[in-house]
Amino acid sequence: MTREEFEAAALALLDSERTLTLATCGPEGLPWATDVWFARDGLALVFYSSPRSRHCRNLAASPACAATVHARTDSWKEIKGLQMEGEAREAQGTAAKARALAAYVRRYPFAAALLAGGGEAAARLAKVRAHVFRPRSIRLVDNARGFATRYAMRVEDGLWQGEPEAENH
Question: Where do the Pyridoxamine 5'-phosphate oxidase N-terminal domain residues begin and end (predicted)?
Answer without folding.
Answer: 7-140
